[in-house]
Amino acid sequence: MTDTTDDRKKVAELIKDFRFAMFTTRKADGKLVSRPFTVQEAEFDGDLWFLISKSSSPAAELAADADVNVSMSSNDAWVSLSGTAWLVDDRSKIDELWNPMVEAWFPDGSDDPDVGLVRFTAESAEYWDTPGGRIATVFSFVKSKLTGEQYDGGESGKVEL
Predict the structure, then answer these.
(1) Considering the entire predicted model, what is its pTM?
(2) b/e 35-47 (16+ beta carbons within 10 angstroms → b)
(3) Residues 117, 88 contacting (CB under 8 angstroms)
(4) Rounded distance, CA 89 to CA 32, Å?
(5) How far apart are CA 135 and CA 154, in angstroms?
């Protein structure tokens, strides 16, 4: 696993372009379950913040097991973060992150007592980036098939955060 500043910067650079994440927790029966969450801050410093219903299944699962995975993807990049998450009681942070889109889930506003805040702290990350998007990926794949050379899928890395 690499541990360079460049890899950390690469992860932060990729994450700033993602709006949605799949948030994976462990259910009481031990099975993993992933749900879509909206990333509330684009600036990645090792932590991600999510607004959540305190009465939701993910909130209960976090109370029992804080180990989670957060994964994100686009047409040309993927990031998988492993770490821990927990509910944070911080009304000022909720107000800071609040936006009109969140009201679709919490129509009573940021003062709704069910509005919760999750802080996720990443411990490690894996990323895959295919600069140039789909066209470059298809070109590399076709080139691989025609030349018999191994497919070069772009840049990837693993980093301890």
Answers:
(1) 0.82
(2) eebebbeeebeee
(3) yes
(4) 25
(5) 12
Question: What's 5-160's CATH class?
Answer: mainly beta
Residue 70 CB neighbour total at 10 angstroms: 24
Q: Does the pLDDT of residue 161 top 90, yes or no?
A: no
Domain coordinates in residue numbering, the chain? 5-160
- Predicted confidence band of residue 149 (pLDDT cuts 50, 70, 90): low
Other residues' Cβ atoms within 10 Å of the Cβ of residue 9: 11
Tokens of 4: 């360079």
Find, among 93, 107, 105, 1, the residue nearest to 47 by Cα. 93
Distance from C-alpha of 140 to C-alpha of 31, rounded to nearest angstrom: 37
Q: What is the C-alpha separation between 117 and 125, in angstroms, rounded?
A: 22
Radius of gyration of the chain (CA): 18
